[in-house]
Design a protein that fits this description.
CATH class of the largest domain: Alpha Beta
Distance between the termini: 38 Å
Strand order of the largest sheet: 4-3-5-12-6
Strand content: 15-25%
CATH superfamily of the largest domain: Periplasmic binding protein-like II
CATH topology of the largest domain: D-Maltodextrin-Binding Protein, domain 2
CATH architecture of the largest domain: 3-Layer(aba) Sandwich
Order of helices and strands: HHHEEHEHHEHEEEEHEHEEEH
Number of domains: 3
Largest sheet: 5 strands, mixed
Length: about 290
């Protein structure tokens, strides 16, 4: 099949009339019918139900229409952005990230991009691990950065760095670095953590860390973003864990105890769609 066949197929999807569709693309009706038959043969599915009076899409046709539209949109976008980048005029890179990544790798990446492609637009969004995966699979983002994220097979990744978790306590909490022995002293505490469903991989790492000391955290507040977690801890509503980069430069009434000798570590992971690796390689190389 070729692009024109796909375009003709989509036009027929809109008109559901071979004669009208053929007139719009300036070919004879039998030629269009033959094109559609060849397309159905190549796809291996009947795309239209045909009677003497009506033409309707089959279930397979509805699916193929959706995917064909997406393919043409992606192709048009690639053509436009390739020409724009060649001329140094425009284009964009979309990045989703976790809170701690903004305190570490995201700013330096944006600086490198700005230096190399001054006219390239960067779209940066902080969001949960779950939403990052959803956005990537639907091509609403190009590159994702998140700690300890569990990824499906369609997505490829690399670890950018590993760092310690820190225990985050309210400023007036009786526990101190000197009194802290191990995580078992936290078994009766109230915790503030992301939802298990949205913090995919990250929350499991924390639960695994606690279970190694004989308890499961009692979670009373579920919060996605690090700054919200820190504010609730500061207010005395519970305690939490954060990658150490999340609390870098924070000036709040909280206590921090770095968990230097504990595993697992917070692993900052860069990830992208496996099928887009070649396309995105110049950006991946900047991390």
């Amino acid at each position: 099949m070729d692009i024109q066949q796909i375009k003709n197929f989509l036009l027929l999807c809109e008109t559901l009339n071979f004669r009208k569709a053929a007139e719009q693309i300036n070919i004879v009706q039998p030629a269009l019918s033959r094109q559609i038959q060849l397309l159905e043969t190549e796809v291996g599915a009947l795309l239209f139900n045909r009677t003497k009076r009506t033409v309707t899409l089959t279930e397979s046709g509805i699916f193929f229409k959706k995917e064909a539209n997406r393919i043409l949109q992606d192709l048009n976008k690639a053509i436009i952005q390739t020409a724009q980048m060649h001329r140094g005029e425009a284009g964009e890179i979309r990045v989703t990230h976790a809170s701690s990544a903004m305190n570490s790798v995201v700013p330096s990446f944006l600086i490198k991009v700005k230096h190399k492609w001054p006219s390239l637009k960067t779209i940066v969004q902080e969001t949960s691990n779950f939403q990052q995966i959803e956005m990537m699979l639907t091509r609403k983002t190009d590159i994702g950065i998140a700690p300890n994220i569990l990824l499906p097979s369609e997505i490829k990744s690399k670890i950018l760095y590993k760092e310690n978790f820190v225990l985050v306590l309210p400023g007036n909490h009786p526990l101190s670095k000197k009194k802290f022995t191990d995580l078992s002293v936290l078994k009766n505490e109230t915790f503030i953590l992301p939802q298990l469903a949205t913090g995919i991989g990250y929350v499991e790492a924390i639960l695994h860390m606690c279970q190694g000391y004989g308890f499961k955290p009692k979670v009373e507040h579920e919060v996605t973003h690090a700054i919200s977690v820190l504010r609730l801890v500061e207010a005395g509503l519970g305690i939490s864990f954060e990658p150490i980069s999340s609390v870098r430069g924070v000036n709040m009434n909280i206590k921090l105890i770095e968990l230097k000798n504990l595993n697992p570590k917070a692993e900052m992971i860069l990830f992208w769609l496996r099928e887009r690796e070649e396309e995105l390689s110049r950006f991946i190389a900047m991390f």
